[in-house]
Amino acid sequence: MKCAVISFTRNGGKLNQILCRKLSEAGYPSVGCSIPKYAQPPELPSLQEPLKDWTGRMFREADALIFIGACGIAVRSIAPFVQDKKTDPAVLVIDEQGKFVISLLSGHLGGANALAEEAARILDAEPVITTATDRQGKFAVDVFAKENGLAIVEMDLAKEVSARIVDGRKVGIFSEFPMDGELPGELEPQEPVSVGICISLSDTVQPFPKTLHLVPRIVTAGIGCRKGVPKEQIRTRLEQALGQAGVSEKALCRIASIDLKAGEPGILELCRECGIPFETFTAEELKAVPGMFTTSAFVKDTTGVDNVCERSAVLAGGRLIEKKHAGAGVTIALAAGEWRAKF
Question: Which CATH architecture has domain 3-130?
């Protein structure tokens, strides 16, 4: 979690230095700067651009912004850039005396609440967290999703789930995966309820009248293709394979292939579009993968291994859940890793 810290006063600059050093040591790489209006510690760089420009750039480049100064400055600075709780970075505000650390934006999905707790520990300050589930010590579905690597499919329904929990009403829970730990009291796995959470690779399973789908990001798409096949063609085949397997696109965590395809434009463009990495393996690595695979003499003559898509999916992702789909110059297979819900 990359943090960008900015301060506005001499004392704030001192806190800035302490916070950046300690946060970095705690696993939050942090870079600080200051407004060059006041005398600052010499090691703290002065901001060389308008505050608005810095804020916009940090919204794109950083995972968290920390303002050491007045809340009003932070609010006015971030206002033009706030868009969606799924994508907005965490934003904290710390008073320049270091007494309070306020989680201002993206408390759950962005990690602002957890970061506020850590910053408060470093500064011996009081964390100020206003999200209702945290104040009441109740189960927060977005925190659970973030900690377990789950994609939230219906964000509006996630808000309804949280509202029900805050109001003291039960929410259902259904999982196609093992669940470890003690189930929170707010979740009911047996009694019929109108709103519930479904943990599945599919986003179409409906165990409740209103079902919030949480999808584990554990599926790898192994892909082979002819040289120069366009992204749209690969995406069409991928959607067909996912549909055949009953797997949500949100379950994808990577694409894998042979190293001969490391620079394939269509695959690279698709990975950028989906926001997932592209992993490649040598023919020797793929040949060493144990299992029964759909063989092809043509593929073996071309690449040196009898199957690319299934072998690369398994090597990168675990258990094969959908065997080779071939057509339009593209082959695709799907594999899923092991996963358990942790409460």
Answer: 3-Layer(aba) Sandwich (3.40)
